[in-house]
Design a protein that fits this description.
There is one protein chain. A hairpin with a 2-residue loop joins β3 and β4. The strands form two sheets. A three-stranded antiparallel beta sheet has the order 4-3-5. A two-stranded antiparallel ribbon has the order 1-2. Helices cover about 50% and strands about 10% of the residues. The chain is built from seven helices and five strands, in the order ββαββααααααβ. It is mainly alpha-helical. It has a domain of about 150 residues: Triger factor/SurA peptide-binding fold (Orthogonal Bundle), CATH 1.10.4030.
Amino acid sequence: MEHFEETSNPQKHSLKRFALPAIAVLLVVGVVAVYQFDLLSKGEGEVIVRVGNEEITRQDAEIRERQLLVRASEGQLSVPQDALFDRAIDDLITESLLYQDALRQGFTADPNEVEVRYNKAEAAFDSEVAFLERMQENLLTPEKFRENIARQIVLFAYLEELKRLAIQEQLDQVVGGKTPDGTSVTVTAERTQLTQDEINEISENKAEALKSEFEVEVFLD
């Protein structure tokens, strides 16, 4: 893969760059999530990437590649078809770095919220059978789909906090963190709704910084 730099070990590569992450997939919890979302499915298969404590298998990358192909066919993504596998790996690495850092910082998902979102996704189908059939087509089980929803919740809480901190830093630099009457200026999570461009920028920049904290190994011929 042209964006991986070979080291002295012929089977170990170090990450050279990240493609713009496809975190857009994370924005939707519902029918589209069933169609297009499966983060690090942990299925059996050849491990092709290790990110910190997580492993990405060839099956994981192939699943994501198929999802990217769907997005490309719908005009949501401009990536040549022969580059989709590389893009899939980049996306999975980025998401893994962000997720592991989020866990390290104590972000968690409320099980009740996970269940609400799961039920909302199921309600969009005509029957439970149809819902389960669609999950099966996407190599998902109900348990794995719930895990993916929980992962989405954690990642977005984490990204919102990163944006909040960035805004607070800007305010501190501009006004010294104080209003004219001396009151402290703060930014709450409710004021940090993320746009897609912000998600891409925050994710890419943070993932790049995290490369020095979480080892990324890519094992490809």
